[in-house]
Each structure stands twice: as structure tokens, then as C-alpha cells.
Design brief:
Order of helices and strands: HHHHHHHHHHHHHHHHHH
Shape: globular
CATH architecture: Orthogonal Bundle
Number of strands: 0
Largest sheet: none
Distance between the termini: 52 Å
Structural class: mainly alpha
Oligomer: single chain
CATH superfamily: Hydantoin permease
Number of helices: 18
Strand content: under 5%
Number of domains: 1
Amino acid sequence: MCFVSRHREAAAMVPKIRRLSLGPGFLVTAAFIGPGTITTCSLAGANFGYALIFVLVFSVVTTLILQEMTGRLSLATGEDLGQSLRHLSKKPLRRGLLVVLTLSSITFGCAAYEAGNIIGGSLGLEMVSSLSPKIGVILISALSILLLGLRKYWLIERFLVGLVCLMSLSFLVTVILIKPDYTSLLNGFIPTLPENSIFLTLGLIGTTVVPYNLFLHSAAVKQKWNLPKYLRDVRKDLILSIGLGGMISISIVVTSAAAFYGQEINPDTGTQMAQQLRPLFGPVATLLFGIGFFAAGMSSAVTAPYAAAFASSGILGWKEGLHSNKFRAIWLGVILIGLLVSLFDLSPLAVIVFAQVANGLLLPVASVILLLLLNNRNRMGAYVNNWKQNLLGSLVISLVSFMGIWNILRLFLK
């Protein structure tokens, strides 16, 4: 169906009352602000002070560029990124390789990291209550299953928007309480790479620019908006949500730098950092950090299986979407794997290594494919990339390609 006729038909079905113009971008933020991000940001602040804040700014801009393209793709074509990949090539071998790579990276990758999300959320609960970690693991898994089992996108969206706002409030108030050196903080926005900071620099980028978010955001945009005229809403949503995500990450770096930089204490995880804040800044800061840690783990515990289901559904051509039993089987499988690993202290190391290799390959491949799709005038119509967008996209692809290759190489350099 041609670009114009498809959107004329869609226009007839659009309700006259406009929906809340926020949502899909918050799913992206909820996905990348997880226990791994908190730990990486904590280590960056403790080891290098405010010096790596500019890396987070750069990561946020990169994420905005990529996610704007995925949103524009969904609005112009009516298909998410997974579905668009199916139409990219008619050659069975090439299509098969894309399917295998995508499913390996997204589905197995989300399953591998789901345990960390669930455990992180449960440790956050432990900081603010008397619940044991095992009970917290069960509660977070059950809540994730209940929420996704309702099959109501709008409810999931609002829940995650709420969690992102809770994270923002918790971590920003924590920064205010610890009273950082604001002059030194501003210097952190000036690009400088301290000695021995390359691993944490790449870690900060890698926890922000996440390949499965490309699939998650494009599918979420398709669920919420169905016409190109909503492009402004998509962009506003992204700027607000990804901007908040950047502020959360920077707040964690600032908190860790103010508390631990130059000291002998060096937190290895976000939970250790929260516990060590108590003697330094009192129980309120620890409480706020614990709430933020719970929200981060909970939000990622929901978005990881959701992203896996959306990516699998799109790339395999399942038509029923959220209401498909296959869709439900994917997200339920991801949560149950995370629950089992969390409860029985199983080691998902082999799966994580495999997922890291697959993600390292998928990120540059998906970014290149995304840029190719955005330059297809027959499918994109008036929303095809212009030269400025292609220039920015090419710079971003160069970055993520380097990131992908580096993430694979460092597995063998340890």
C-alpha cells in the first residue's frame, strides 16, 4: 500500500481526543537505567570524580539520534524495526542471518541480564524495608508477570513513566543533600579522558546506547501513535524522557564522586554505595538511593522481557502483537529465567558472554540497517532522512560500530 493511502485510512481511525503525548521514550529510559547503569556510574564517580560526565552527555545525544530515527520509521511505515528488517532483503540466507542475529542478541541477551534486573530491584527493596532479597526477587518477578499479563500497553507505559519520575526525584534529591562542588561538577562537562578511564568510558556509553531499545521504542511508538503528524510528539517525548535518563545517570556519578572520590572507600556496586552513604550523609540519602535503586531494577525487569517479545514478534512476523500467546511466551520465559537464576544463585556467565558478543554485532548492524531504511524514499515518503540526519547518523554508526567491536574484543582481553 502506498505511503499516502495508508495514512489516509489510518487518519479515519484516529480518535478526535488526543492522547497523552508522553510514553514510548520513557520505556527507553526505564530500560537503560538499570542496576548495571547505577553500578557503572557509581564506579565512574568514585574513580574519576566528575571527569566522565561529558561521556554521559555524549551518550544521551547519541541515544536521541538513534531513537528519533526508530520512531520516525514506525510513524512513516506503520511497521516497527523488527518488521522492517523482514522486508529489507528477499534473499533467504541474508534474512535468516538477520533473524538469528536479532533473536540471539535481543531474546537471549534480555534473558541473560534479567536476573541482574530482578536482583537489583530486590536489593533496593531490602534497603528501604525488612524484606529479604529472596522475597524481593519473588515480588518483583510476580509484579512484572502481573503487569505484562494484563496486555494493556497504556498501563505498562504509565507504570514505567511513574518509575522514571520516581528515579529522577530520588537521585536528584540525593545530589542536593550531599552538596557537591558545583564548580568542579561543571568542569565535568568539558571533554577530558583521565588515564585508565577507557573501560569505564565505554561502559557508560554501552549502558546508555542499548541495541534492544531500538526495537522496543519503534514498537512502542507503533502502539501509541499511528500517523506521521505525531512526529513532534515523538521528539518531545524523547527529549524529556532521555534527558531525564541522562540527569539520573549524572546524578549517580555526582553522588558517588562527592562521597568517595579521593577516599579509600570505593563501592563495587550501587547497593554498596547506598549502604556506605549512611554514615556519610545519614539515613535519608540512603533511603532515597534505595528507592531509586528499586525503581531502576523494577523498570528494567519489565522492559527487558517486553523488548524481547516485541523484537521476536516483529522479526518472526507474528501478527497478533501483544495478544499473541507467542508474544506472552517470550516475555514470560525471560522473566522466569531471571527468577530461577536469582533464586538458585545460578551462574548465567556463558549466556551473558554469548549475549555480549551478539549485542556487539547487532548494535552496528541494526544501526546501519536503520540508516538504510530511513533513506528509502518509497517507504518513508516525506519523512526520509535529509543530509544532516544522514551525517549525524553516520557519525553515530561509526561510534556504535567501534563500541560493538570493542565489547567483543574486551571479552578476550581480560
